[in-house]
């Protein structure tokens, strides 16, 4: 009989005798092991530098992880009935096998998630998303058509996967249908893609949980606002009871369904939401007034609509020769400098009197206009220094002057074959589109310091001591006339 030299038997234990077999077990050799010790710094650094490889066996990763001791038939989720979440006891082997199966088979779920995100986030263009919005509007108007949606989905899947034979294959010789592709094997590209999607979905779920969790105390009597929320809920419930028959359900569901598309539209995300955030941040961080910021935004929108209306009027005045010709825009820059002293009257108040003049306005001699709200001083082209820009320049850098006296039409020579549109005149850029950082005021002026730098919509008070300047962009349309080339 074999002996166990490495096992210590308690003194009160009775050893059982077994029958001698024909082929007795070969006795094991004695094994000596050392006590566990801390790893060396080199080994610890090597272990820390080891990176995770998605192709490594998940069973090895899970089984090598330190878990607390799990008793047999452990079920942490207590339930009086058998549910899906308590069907099997907690077990590391079961967890490993199910996780491997889940990663290999969850691909269609993330494919559907990607398609929904493309439609909802306008990733494939407005036409693609617009078709789905139109389908949803059709279902809202004819709600009974929802019962046919499963039939439409099933028919679409069958038609989409219909095998189209190649021209080289004859009709008589048909190949048997291809079997359904098996789940991707562990370590393949598709398997890693599913694992990446699971990773990102877990992060998105945690982000959503962290966003909603601060609101939970208000609903579970952990906040002083719980009673107020309950009161408002009951009052709104009693108010809606008699109004329910009057609510148009089709319109209500349409608005609720289209609202996410409006919220995720690129215009909403890139323009409206940043403007609202700027209004709030302007009132909190800068100590300003949010209503004043929103007023500035409203003024910008009003100026934009005003420019579009003026352009529509100008288009209505165009002749037939203009519509059939190539049209472009030329630009001029008006430059002025502020000088301290008594305010002077101007023979032409520039943009201040824009609404009072016609399309062919008179630019005058630029003798100056007062700066309202900035103290005593005058804006004028005559205040420009010899080293400054010219009063009127054509290049955007501001140093290429028009030359000669400024006439009432402010015309200059164009390229051969080009002519100014006769039915309209110069128009100011009231939005300051050439200054993306600051923009212009409602009159199109962009204010700068003494060296024509640091553009702003409103001049700073400290600039009055050192000097300040301003610029404004004017545009006018020109058209190409081949007859002018023949006459030349």
CA-based shape: elongated
The separation of the N and C termini measures 123 Å
Task: Kindly provide the radius of gyration, computed on alpha-carbon positions and rounded to a whole number of angstroms.
Answer: 39 Å
Count all strands and give the number: 8
Major sheet characteristics: 8 strands, antiparallel
Brief overview, please?
This protein is of the alpha+beta class and 488 residues long. It is built from 14 helices and eight strands.
Helix/strand layout:
Blueprint lengths: L40 H8 L9 H6 L28 H14 L1 H14 L5 H16 L7 H12 L28 H24 L13 H18 L5 H15 L2 H19 L5 H27 L3 H4 L3 E13 L29 E2 L7 E3 L11 E2 L24 E3 L6 E2 L16 E5 L13 H4 L1 E13 L1 H6 L1
Antiparallel strand pairs: 1-3, 1-4, 1-8, 2-3, 5-8, 6-8, 7-8
Helix pairs in contact: 5-9, 10-11
Can you describe what's shown?
By secondary structure, the chain is an alpha+beta fold. It contains 14 helices and 8 strands. It has helices spanning 41-48, 58-63, 92-105, 107-120, 126-141, 149-160, 189-212, 226-243, 249-263, 266-284, 290-316, 320-323, 463-466, 482-487, and strands spanning 327-339, 369-370, 378-380, 392-393, 418-420, 427-428, 445-449, 468-480. Strand 2 and strand 3 form a beta hairpin. It is elongated and about 120 Å long. 10% of the residues are buried. Residues 44-52, 283-288 and 344-374 have low confidence and may be disordered.
Primary descriptors:
single chain, 488 residues, alpha+beta, 14 helices, elongated
